[in-house]
């Protein structure tokens, strides 16, 4: 409990100001109040506070205006927005501007106190630089600290606690499924199913049956009743991967399902009601598809309640070293190898490359290098030729096949760095001392008499 924490509560509604102030004080906080944003700003200029409870609708400057002022002034105080006029769009706007949380009036007192405690505790840790890069947000499975990812984490934090449909856009390989899974994990639906529907792999004549099921005898080949994926997902989340490929013939029926949350199996007569949240993803330009009448506009807006546009890897170069280190550990473990070291020019090349395949391509390149490297050191030799050439690090043709000399050079580098201590050199190379001595003998670095 933050007994000494000071809370600034800003609200023009007198009754709410009195009631919530009393509740916050009873929870052990020191409370100061203001009825306008201008008054609150005046207080902040002469008083330090640990958290701000800010009503969205205020006379003069509203809550969003005050958030903008806080951001402009560099005042990093965890702020909880309150409003009786809440929408997802306002919530997202508030989160983009740095709000910690967003609550709808009338506020549950216990929830408010929990959020205040959580905000103050997290901000305290953050300000002391105790949290690692992955713990500065609530999605440790997603690696990133770049500016391009900050807004993504804000929006994910906000939407995960709602039932709003989410549309995730971005190039192939940017991690759309990973984001969808992270939102589901953080949601109140996390204990329920997370069902993936890949709209590119299900034949058009079978996709309706896959989604909604069918009754026995509904069509030729329907020898048994089939439960659809929407029914299996009841209470959970359905991830529609590559939703832009959803056949136009099914889009109207799917729109009706989204509106009514119920459907009929093919060949059935009873209506089946389910509670599912839809997260969809695409690498297509759906706005263009809408204009070309190959994707329904009404369905587009129903899916696109909240949009998360994932940046390409070339737009978040600051995250490449973090991702590389993550994949080095991951794939070394999966391939029963020690975590290798990168020669400096390798990291430079990885950062310089544009990554048309995004994170998926980077993961592939790192795993390939780990599998091919036997020395414990990843040099430019182990990167694909396309990266060597496009980043100006290509190995000259006349030397590209001289692998023996390359291996000898790597071993000599390890030996020289350890004053020819074979045990330490072997550790650097990720091999046993016996293996190192065998290689040294074959390379002429040790005589037979010493063997």
Structural class: alpha/beta
Biggest sheet, strands in spatial order?
2-1-3-4-5
Bulk shape:
flat
Q: Distance N terminus to C terminus? A: 67 Å
Tally of DSSP helical segments: 20
Main beta sheet, described? 5 strands, parallel
Let me know the average pLDDT.
Answer: 84
Q: Helix coverage percent of residues?
A: 40-55%
Uncertain runs? 125-136, 397-401
- Proportion of beta-strand residues: 5-15%
Walkthrough of the structure:
The chain has 451 residues and is α/β, with parallel strands linked by helices. Helix content is 46%, strand content 13%. The chain has 20 helices and 16 strands. Helix 4 links the parallel strand 4 and strand 5. The longest helix is centred in the N-terminal third of the chain and has 19 residues. The protein is flat. About 4% of the residues have low confidence.
List the helices and strands and how they pair.
Elements: E1 6-10, H1 14-26, E2 30-34, H2 37-44, E3 51-55, H3 63-73, E4 79-83, H4 88-96, E5 101-104, H5 109-127, H6 147-160, E6 166-169, H7 176-186, E7 194-198, H8 204-212, E8 213-214, E9 226-227, H9 229-232, E10 237-241, H10 248-260, E11 262-263, E12 272-273, E13 277-282, H11 286-291, H12 297-303, E14 306-309, H13 320-334, E15 341-342, H14 344-352, H15 358-372, E16 377-378, H16 385-390, H17 397-400, H18 403-417, H19 422-429, H20 433-442
Parallel strand pairs: 1-2, 1-3, 3-4, 4-5, 6-13, 6-14, 7-10, 10-13, 15-16
Antiparallel strand pairs: 8-9, 11-12
Helix pairs in contact: 4-6, 6-7, 13-15, 18-19, 19-20
